[in-house]
Amino acid sequence: MRSYELNTISAYRMSMACLPHLERAENASITNSGSFSSAVPAYDILPYATAKAALNQMMVSLAHMLNKRVRVNSILIGTVITPGYADAGITPEMQERMMHPDNLIGRPGRPQDVANAMLWLCSPAGGWISGQTINVHGGGNVVRLFGH
User: Fold this and answer.
1) Domain span at residue 37?
2) pLDDT for the residue 148
3) Hey, how many other C-beta atoms are within 10 angstroms of the C-beta on 102?
4) Catalytic residues
5) Tally of domains in the chain
6) Could you tell me which of 7, 95, 14, 86 has the C-alpha nearest to residue 51?
């Protein structure tokens, strides 16, 4: 339940809290941080992956609910190496495996890769995009982070 509260309910509450301001803004946009693990079997991180899957559904529903007023999208993020992995309890061995993801680019993502996609979706350049989940994961279909 904690993962659902952190990854789904919190996004809904923040969206609703910001809605009065968004509805008055030009080019209003909500862009959510999703996870590619929500779209593939991810039994090794099941609570997180299912919470992010619920987030995907919520964001598409919000896009329909807020149509013509606020654009709503999600970015499905793949493996991005950050210092937070160690804090989350991911061992150095697991982190080493994550440095070599099974994707088409051949490297893990960088925070800037995700930021660029988010900036594009929130900018006027993304002004005709709503209700979409955009994959930002280096291409390919990684099924598990830690499995064999």
Assistant:
1) 2-136
2) 45
3) 12
4) 48
5) 1
6) 7
Q: Does 104 fall in a domain?
A: yes
pLDDT of 72 reads: 98
List pLDDT tens digits, range 88-116. 777 888 878 888 877 888 888 999 999 99
Here the contacts of 33-38 (C-beta below 8 Å, separation 24 or greater) are 33/74, 33/75, 33/77, 33/114, 33/118, 34/59, 34/74, 34/75, 34/76, 34/77, 34/133, 35/76, 35/77, 36/76, 36/77, 36/78, 36/135, 36/137, 36/142, 37/145, 38/76
Query: Is there a contact between 43 and 143 (Cβ–Cβ < 8 Å)?
Result: no
- The amino acid sitting at 16 is M
CATH number at residue 62: 3.40.50.720
| pLDDT < 50: residue spans in the chain | 143-144, 148
